């Protein structure tokens, strides 16, 4: 038996699986509760031999602990660095990193900071470069770049959040969550429908677009290629095929693969997607540790 613990505190929102362990795995997420099914599956697949912590972003919690403050991508990275320093004071314990979307970029930055401790880093559907061919990213960029629009959208979302739970659940199920699992739908109603959460998501997105307009640090990734793995999926504007091809071109020795089972970028929003990606991650970790 195992237990999932959600800690909703001022500085860290995290989900923890504790065990007597030889390795420590940290998962970079946005809102932790979306990844509950994934983390549970991964913990089971690893046989309970790895201690897992899924850590979310600052001010993407139910309560506005930060008093309306907005956090950039770099500030979120600094938050994760602070967490690792607090949590892993024993530097003899090997650290594995798993990141999804922008969490993949954050994981690489953590690896850069803790190179002596990190033994493996996995990026799932990695958002590594701005996709200038994506209309969705263009529109999100315009929205995030306008303080007025960001405020209006966040206020509208917050209005939905104060409706009776059955009403907000119905709205989510008929809009963004048509094919979502119960876990994901509950996470959306609990966390996304908050003014401070949506404002922070949009503000962070703006800083992501600014940072990821730069050329990736291919030299660092090439030097670290034996400890890096990426998984892409089809029809994903956040991690499109031309980025997969560019990584393959720049670092042919790196483990880069494409999932073709039909799971989307938001794999954590379905039970099937969570299980499939957990199986993939568990297989990578087992193979890497056994090498």
TrEMBL record:
GO molecular function: lipase activity
GO CC annotation: lipid droplet
Keyword entries, A-Z: Hydrolase, Lipid droplet
Cell location: Lipid droplet
Biological processes annotated in GO: lipid storage
A Pfam family hit: LIDHydrolase
Family: Belongs to the AB hydrolase superfamily. LDAH family.
Protein's recorded name: Lipid droplet-associated hydrolase isoform X3
